[in-house]
Here is the input.
Amino acid sequence: MHGRKRTRSFYVLGAFFILFVLFLYGPMSTIFILSFQGPEGGLTFPMRGVSVNWFRNLTEKQMVGDFAGSFARSFTLGVIVMVLTVAIALAGGLAFRHRFKGSGLVFYLAIASLIVPSILVSLGIGLQFRILGWDTAWYTSGLAAHLTWTLPFGLLIMFAIFNRFNKSYEEAARDLGATPWQVIRHVVIPIILPSLIGIALFGLTLSYDEFARSLMTAGTDNTLPLEIYAMTTNVTTPVLYALGTVTSGFSFLIIILALGAVSFVRWRRERHGSDAGKGV
Amino acid sequence: MKRFNYTPYLQVAPLAFVFGAFLVIPILTIVVVSFWDYDFARIIPDFVLTNYAELLGSPVTLRTYLNTLRYAAIVWVCTLAIGFTIAYFLAFHVQSTTWQTACFLICTVPFLTSNIIRMISWIPFLGRNGLLNSALMGLGVVNQPLEFLLFSDFAVVLAFVHLYTLFMIVPIFNSMMRIDRALLEAAYDAGASGWQVLVNVILPLCKPGIAIGSIFVVTLVMGDFITVRFMSGGQSASVGLMMANAISLLQYPAAAANAVILLIVVLLMVAAMMRVVDIRKEL
Here is the structure.
């Protein structure tokens, strides 16, 4: 507690935390190391030499299926989901600041969207498209299925933001004659920008890694998680780990970019000496 | 007279459209299709109860549901214990905000990477010739590799805990950060021990966070099929897996009937947990 000296429980809990972090990251780092396995090496230690052989295998199409194509599809889909999630969640978040009929219903739909098992959403949308006679494809039914997963997260983050939002900034802008649109564009959005970047990060990464909701909705072309899953059943070489290293590396890159963007926004804010956003 | 304000309706329209078109209608579709007939290649509009009769009449169904509930119960206990401890450490023992944020991010990052890759990463660790077996044999604890580590119920639970503990940490941490620190000081001043403060002050105030985390973990486990399939090596069953198998055999009405039952079970469980918490107040 504040002002208290570090107690024995701090060290016990600290050790537990470190163990938990090892538990989280340990397995991931072993496949990172093993992806550099020599050409003769297998799925477990020991390392038989060090090589980039398995990464090279990854680029050969016949070896592991369509890695480049599925990666491109998953990334494109992720970006579309990201843009739509930010836009729709922001608009929805703004709506919930007012009273409107049916707000409770929309809120409970959002919660339902989180707790209804993914495979149900997948099956439902798949059947829906089938009955309507539409073809499923990653950019139509797949997109819809992913949005049902990313939007609730986006909306909940928006709630958290606006519950802590200081309305006097908006009132000040309105008193100075700003139109509602100008208030949103020049006051609200700049203040909540770091959180919007957070929603964007969620939208992109959750879609990029989504498996169950893509299962019946991705159509004939696989997204990356579907491709990886197909590989687990028929590939027994470290090329699987190379794929894991590349896709995880990509996820980490996105996370680092997002964190960098957030710190950049904060830094610029402080440099300009404005007090905007201090209430956030 | 105040003019009717239509702005919120326009703002919420896209959101309502997505949930209406891609959540409500699909679920209604599932309900309808669960009464349809099917043969090896087609689904046939009809009104039959055979899908439910076959499902509910089969002892496999009950066994599978019980097995899935067992996973949910074990994973719930493990994630709650670990999640509460981690959140407690972060909220009350890490003093600087910077460190708090950093540690919190460290816990969150894996959530944003692929679940399948995170499952695959257990192979070199748990496999027959994996690190754990090598270490145990090196230490002389066992003479031959333990077979139950990978492709077993143990592996399934381990992977679930690995994947979903974060869903406990975040809401519990959130609850803990909202606890007025003066309450703790008051309890200490009144002579409470650290343990008593934890049990009598912190724990009751964390109930909403625990409920939200539990809802996440339980629903994720109940609907899962890929973790069970991959980590048990196809040896264990879960409801999701049963559905996925029916889907791969194109027996959509059978899968739909199972989906309806699963949805009812999950909603009942969530309703029970919701009694503890008003989610809208917790954000």
